[in-house]
DNA sequence: CCGTATCCGTTTGGATACTG
DNA sequence: CAGTATCCAAACGGATACGG
């Protein structure tokens, strides 16, 4: 499970699902994340082979992060967990307010 | 993701996949887990609706933990994550030892 | 724009001892 | 057997300041 460990790691993976994103784009995608933590997570996920870091030779240069093929395999799993979470929340609301 | 948060939570879920287990059985299933943490995780997972706690009126009485239907839905997701982890480990070994 | 370094409060989990 | 209470060290993440 270490592969998705750390605060915001699943969010980072999730926001890369549609294609490459830059550092500051990810910061805006995941509002309350700090630069420090985003940087840490990106480096960890890169070290584990979940994401790839690419420096684009544009003017000005920019850095892009994207999922590796293996990283992409995590998406359905994260989806499934989130969906169970939603069902659980709905059920717990019903327990508290039986008319819901 | 809070649904699987906390140390050993995925292991607890995993070891309930084949049916109910008792407290001390889970302790032995997950060797380095402490009673305190196992107790905490069981209580959290129960509170979230992932597992169910049942007191068996046997002699002596025993306590059994089992997955709820929603908890069972987490198994394929955990499987998928673990499998990606295995592939990642294999790939990283190859990177370090190109003949592997 | 893309980060890193430092400080610092909070949370976590382990060890141990104890209870019904 | 099935936990709970307490103490403690380590890890974590946030805020801030700073560098390439």
UniProtKB/TrEMBL annotation, chains A, B:
Keywords: DNA-binding, Plasmid, Transcription, Transcription regulation. SUPFAM superfamilies: Winged helix' DNA-binding domain (SSF46785). Pfam families: HxlR (PF01638). Gene3D superfamilies: Winged helix-like DNA-binding domain superfamily/Winged helix DNA-binding domain. Residues 1-93 form the HTH hxlR-type domain. The keyword Lyase does not apply. One of its GO terms (molecular function) is DNA binding. This is Transcriptional regulator.
């Amino acid at each position: 499970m270490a592969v998705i460990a750390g605060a915001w790691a699943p969010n980072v993976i999730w926001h890369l699902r549609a294609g490459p994103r830059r550092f500051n784009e990810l910061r805006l995608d995941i509002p309350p994340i700090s630069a420090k933590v985003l940087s840490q997570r990106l480096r960890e996920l890169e070290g584990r082979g979940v994401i790839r870091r690419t420096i684009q030779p544009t003017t000005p240069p920019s850095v892009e992060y994207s999922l590796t093929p293996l990283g992409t395999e995590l998406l359905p799993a994260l989806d499934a967990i989130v969906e169970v979470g939603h069902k659980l929340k709905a059920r717990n609301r019903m327990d508290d307010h039986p008319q819901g």
